[in-house]
Amino acid sequence: MTKKLDTSVEESQTDAAARRTKGEFVRGVSGFRSSLGDVHFPADPGRYHLIVALNCPWCHRVTLARNLLGLEGSITLDVVFPNRTGDGDSVGPNLWEFNPARVATLTGASLPECTPETGTGKGYRLVKHIYAAEGSNEGSLPILYDKKRKRIVSNESADIVRMLNGQAEALGSTLANARRPDLYPNDSSLRSEIDALNDAIYTNINNGAYKAGFSSDQAVYAEAFKNYFSTLASLEARLASDNRPFLTGDTFTEADLRLFPTLYRHDPVYYVRMKLNGARILDYPKLWRWLCRTYALPGVAQSNSLDHCRQGYFGRSWNNVIPLGPFNPMPYPEAYKHPDLARSQ
After folding, report:
1. Taking Cα atoms as reference points, which of 178, 330, 315, 181 lies closest to residue 245?
2. Which of 119, 170, 243, 251 could in theory staple to 49 by disulfide, Cβ–Cβ 3.0 to 4.6 A?
C-alpha cells in the first residue's frame, strides 16, 4: 500500500522536475527520519545535538521547541552563517557553512550567534561534509545529530519537534512536567484539530510563503499569494471567535509553534522579499496580539535573530542589499513587545 502523503510535513513530488522547470518552487523531502527513543537512538540527556540556520523558519521550529521544552542545557546547538558559500568556494556554491568569523553585510561585523561545528568531533567547515560522512548528497538544515553514534537522527523539522516534545523529560528537560508545555497532547479530538491546523499552516503559510517568494511563474505566485492571505484571514477569525489566546484555545500547541516562524518574519522580511505585500501582520489585530503573546513566552525571543533573517534572505537576493526598515511604528523585533500597536493602526 502506498503511504499517504502527510501534507502538513511535505508536498507532493509528482512531476517535481517539470514543475521546477516551469518556475514553481517545490520543496524536497527530508531523507533522514529515524526516531528518538528507539533502540538505536535512546532518549538520553546530553547525547543529542542540533545544527541550525537561524534565518531558516524550519530550523526556527526546532529552536523554539528546544527552548520552550527546557532542553537548552541537554541538547547542544551549532549555528551556521545565514548566507551560504559563494561561487568562489573551493567545494562549491550555495552550501551551509560554519564560519563564526564571517562578516555580515547588514552589521559590518561577525554575528555572535554563529558557531564552529562542534557536534561531530570533526570540526567540519560545511554541513555537506556531515551528510557526506553518511553517504548522503543532502545538505539541508535542521539536523538532529547523535554525538555518541556519530549519526544523523533526523533532518525533518516536523519530526524533530514532535520527538523533542514526546521525549522531553527523558532528554533532561529542566522544566517540571506541570510547567512544561505539551505541544501535542494525548487527546484525540485536540490532536485532530492540531493536525488540521498544521496542514493549512504548512501548505498555505509556511511553504506558501516560499511558493510566493521563490517561484518565477506568475500564476503560481498569484495562487500562493491568495492562499496565504486567505489563511491569515481565517486564523484571525478563529482567534476573534471567542478571544482565545492561542489557536486551539487556552494553551500553546504545535500548531502555534509552526505558525510563529513565518509570522515572525512577515512584516520585516517576507512583506518585501517574498512579495507578500498584501498586508502586514500588524494589520490583523488578533494575529498581532497572538504574535506578541507568543514572543513573550519564556525562551521564544532567544530562539532566533532577525539580523540572521534579514542577512539570510536579502543577502542572497540579486543585489545583496539588505533593507534597513521597517521602523514605523517602531523597529522589529522591539515591536513584538507591544501588542497594543495593532490597536493604534
Report:
1. 181
2. 119
